[in-house]
Amino acid sequence: MVRFQGRGFGRGRGHGNYKGRSQHRSQPSSTQKSTSQKSTEKKTLSDHIYYVGSAKQASDFVTVTNFIISHIKINLGQYGPDVADAMEALEDIDFEKDKPVLRKTKITDKDVEDDESGQKGIDRDAEQDQFLNEFKIDYEAHKTRQKAYEYNKKKAAAILWKQCSPTMKSKVMSRTDYTTIKEDPIELLKAIRQHAMSYESTRCRMKTIVDALKAFVNFRQKEDESTIDYLRRFKTARDVFISHVGKDFGFPRVVEEDQEFKELEEKLANQTATVEEVKKKYDELNKMHMEKFYAYLYLENTDRARYGSILKYGSGCSIQFEA
Q1: What is the rounded CA–CA span in Å between residue 210 and residue 201?
Q2: What residues contact 237, with CB distance under 8 A and at least 6 apart?
Q3: For residue 305, what pLDDT is reported?
Q4: N or C: lower Cβ tally within 10 Å for the chain?
């Protein structure tokens, strides 16, 4: 079972009346198709903008973010990947964990005392000097990397800010924590994600929820999209959906029909279980069944042209992969 820890379209044939000598429309050449496809691809930063959320824009958040992170990784020099990796993980790098440690020689005082030639003492001093020199080099490199990281964070935050639409900038600037996050790309990205995924409007609240539900259920893996990128976009679409229906959303009847829950309800009726125990079990089972729902939906909406032949649905909604 796939566990989670946040459209394709058909092209019909034209049937309009055609006036001319030929009754058949000329088909574009493979070169023309390739050129047309390339012209619609998003290739530059100007094509990747953060907008305040809608069902579609929220799903595009991952695509835009991945492009910007790749840009940062390539264009911020030798230490650019550090900031890019931190933004991808949404967590600062712990430089203390990677801090160099001075190695110590394994030649003990006793070894030196027992060596009548005195060579052990010479070897120990030479080895310790070598370790000290290596430590100094590693420590300087570590400090240089740490300073570059802090400097690149500000540059990365500036790039993120540049990629925000005017409305998104207005939303972020209106936050009480704006002054503390504006030069921190990790916190700034979290704020952007929040506004990209929380699409509120003056429309009917139920319409907003229905739109989020439709966008999630009809979510599809794109042609030539890797499973990793599909999973990232899927998680974003799931998070958008949850942000509108609530984290406790579930299928009560599925939980109530679960054998474990039935047995616990019987114990409650017999006063051998408490209400708190029943509620706790309900929450556990609801979470488990929602994970099954997300896993099923993720696999159901994979690119069938590539994976349809290896997906096999067994009894009880179990999903297997044929070798």
Answers
A1: 13
A2: 58, 59, 215, 216, 219
A3: 82
A4: C
Phi and psi angles of residue 312, each rounded to the nearest 5 degrees, phi first: -135, 125
Contacts of 98 (CB under 8 A, 6+ apart): 142
Two structure tokens written together for 142: 């570590």
312, β-bridge pairs: 320
Could you give the residue ranges of the DSSP H alpha helices within the chain? 30-40, 55-75, 80-89, 109-114, 119-162, 166-173, 178-181, 185-197, 205-217, 227-245, 252-256, 259-269, 275-300, 304-307
Angstrom CA distances, 291 to 99, 259, 286, 294, 298, stand at 39, 18, 9, 5, 10
Give the domain range for residue 94.
45-247
Question: Would you say residue 56 lies in a domain?
Answer: yes
Residue matched to tokens 């006793």: 110
Residue with tokens 């504006």: 182
pLDDT digits (tens, 9 = 90+) for 140-169: 999 999 999 999 999 999 999 999 999 999
**268 Cβ contact partners less than 8 Å away, ≥ 6 residues apart:** 274, 275, 277, 278
CB 184 within 8 A of CB 153: yes
What distances in angstroms separate CA 107 from CA 115, 133, 134, 182, one per listed residue?
A: 11, 18, 18, 52
Give the DSSP letter of residue 50. Answer: B
What SS3 state is found at 320?
strand
Q: How far is Cα 193 from Cα 208, in angstroms, rounded to an integer?
A: 18
- Per the listing, tokens 């002054």 go with 179
Residue 199 belongs to a domain: yes
- The verdict on residue 61 lying in a domain is yes
Backbone angles phi, psi at 167, to 5 degrees: -65, -40
Q: How far apart are CA 235 and CA 238, in angstroms?
A: 5
The reply to whether 171 falls in a domain is yes
Tell me how many domains the chain contains. Answer: 1
234-270 pLDDT, tens digit each: 887 887 788 778 888 899 999 999 999 999 889 888 8
